[in-house]
Amino acid sequence: MDPDELGQLIDVHSAALELYARQWCDDAPDVVQTAFVRLIEQEQTPTSTVAWLYRVVRNAALMQRRSDRRRQSLEARVSQMSPQWFVPSMGECLDSESATHALQEISEECREVVIARIWGKLTFDEISEITNTSSSTAHRRYLEGLDLLRKKLGVSCQNE
Questions:
Q1: Are 62 and 15 within one domain?
Q2: How many degrees, rounded to 5, is the angle at CA 38 between CA 32 and CA 40?
Q3: Predicted TM-score (pTM) above 0.70
Q4: CATH classification at residue 66
């Protein structure tokens, strides 16, 4: 295919092809680009190039949608099987789902120290070795993490 002819096809039809693909998938620009690449790879130019492009875009968009649905379904199944951060207990007043969500919302540094201190029962010296920080930094992050968790969970604690 002549490069000028290809450029003209892209200029005239790419936006409409993207709109056409968007009804089936979110990656419309990629699908259209792939269709033009496939056009270049053809040994002979299709008889009706524009119709051919629409067919290729449609097929690729439908395949992309199926792939996305399979991936989303798999991700949903895997997330349901992933272990909870907390083991639910009938006697606890801590809602494990809320606590997990709150932990995920605080900074990684604070979360690491809080988990290591509370659930790992590590000392601040041990935590400082693991995190390559000072003991006082580990303690500060612990207090900051607890404060953020209290605010996110709407809980006040007397003991630390």
A1: yes
A2: 110
A3: no
A4: 1.10.1740
How many domains is the chain built from?
Answer: 2
Number of neighbouring beta carbons within 10 Å of residue 2? 8
Tell me the pLDDT tens digit for each residue of 53-74. 999 999 999 999 999 999 988 8
Rg (CA), the chain: 27
Place of tokens 């629409």: 54
Per residue in 77-115, pLDDT tens?
877 776 666 655 544 556 677 778 888 888 888 988 888
